Amino acid sequence: MLGWLYLVGVLFLLGRLLWRLGSLAHYIRSFKKTPKPGYCLVQTEGLLPTFSFLHYLFWDNTQALTLEEENKILHHELAHIHGHHSLDMFYAELLTVFFWFHPAAYAYKQALRNTHEFIADAAALRFCDRQSYQKLMVQRLFHQLHLRVIHNFNQNEIQKRLHQIQKRPTPAYWQLKMLLLLPVLGLTLMSLAGRLPESIPALAPVLSEEEQNRFATAEGGLDNFYREVIQKISYPASARRAGIEGRVYIQFSVMPDGSRQDFRVVKGIDPACDAAALEAVRQAKTPWLPAKVGGQNVRQTVSIPITFQLN
Fold it and tell me: How far apart are the C-alpha atoms of 125 and 166, rounded to whole Å?
């Protein structure tokens, strides 16, 4: 019985991994590619965020970035490419496929991902100051992909990276730490082979200084903000008649004083739906709490998805 359960888990996770790789291959074929020294630039036209995979640098060319911000993100992603981090993550994904029942495999993958981000941050910091780089990390937030063999400049682990930047780590230290983890993982897997864990223990958070570093959010939570937007929005009659459904992404900036500015549609489905979503988000009165880096309020760009669905 346990053998069949193990096999089903392996086949499911392996199929999911192959689907993700196939999706990346589709993106590579679909988008415009420009060869560059040491990498290939793929312009996503706002359909995907900026991330790296193998020697491909997927770049969201619809971002409102300064030349300085572009260079910071470029140095970060090139560190992933030149360090062959995608191959490391592919190995970690295979590890979780064949040892899906063991929490150590997931802990290893997460530790490896964090280490890659620390190394890439250290590489980018050689070309800029820490404070401006930390602000960029908080400001440039996008929706996360579920393609976990890629490296995205905007990760959910940004708080850990901010904390690590403040500690001034060295890449060599983290590489040594990962090498020490490999034999420990191997011994643990061998000692517990054949036994399924009853539960996977939660990992303790690295950083709890909410008042020092946080993302911008609506007072009372995003659910409170969405409820107000839903009350203000109306489904355009022309879109209803045409059977138009989909998701509109509205982007705006939360300023250091909590005010919201620079509203725009970054991905739409229909002019009438786009306008209705933009107006509803703009007119929402729910106050926002600004993002913080090192205890100081900073500007952050936020993207809000608004779904239009016919009953």
Answer: 12
**What is the edge-to-edge ordering of all strands in the sheet holding 300-308?**
260-267, 246-254, 300-308
Report DSSP letters for 137-175, one per residue. HHHB--PPPS-TTSEESS-TTHHHHHHHHHH---HHHHH
C-alpha 152/C-alpha 241 separation (Å) is 39
Collapsing DSSP to helix, strand or coil, 311 comes out as coil
Interval 70-92: pLDDT, tens: 888 888 888 888 888 888 888 88
pLDDT per position as a tens digit, 184-234: 555 555 554 444 444 444 444 444 445 567 778 888 888 888 888 888 888
Neighbours of 127 (CB within 10 A): 13
| Residue 92: C-alpha distances to residues 95, 126, 150, 159, 180 (Å) | 5, 28, 12, 23, 16
Q: Dig out the tokens for 36 from the structure.
A: 């560059």
The backbone torsions φ and ψ at residue 46, rounded to the nearest 5 degrees and listed phi first, read 80, -5
Q: What is the mean pLDDT of the chain?
A: 77
**Could you give the CA distance from residue 286 to residue 133 in angstroms, rounded to a whole number?**
29
Distance CA 91, CA 270 (A): 42
Q: pTM above the 0.85 mark?
A: no
Mean pLDDT value of segment 138-152: 45
The domains located in the chain, with CATH, are 2-191 (no CATH), 217-308 (3.30.1150.10)
Length of the chain in terms of residues written = 311
Please report which helix (H) or strand (E) contains residue 23, including its range: helix 2-30
Cα–Cα distance for residue pair 267/288, rounded to 1 Å: 23
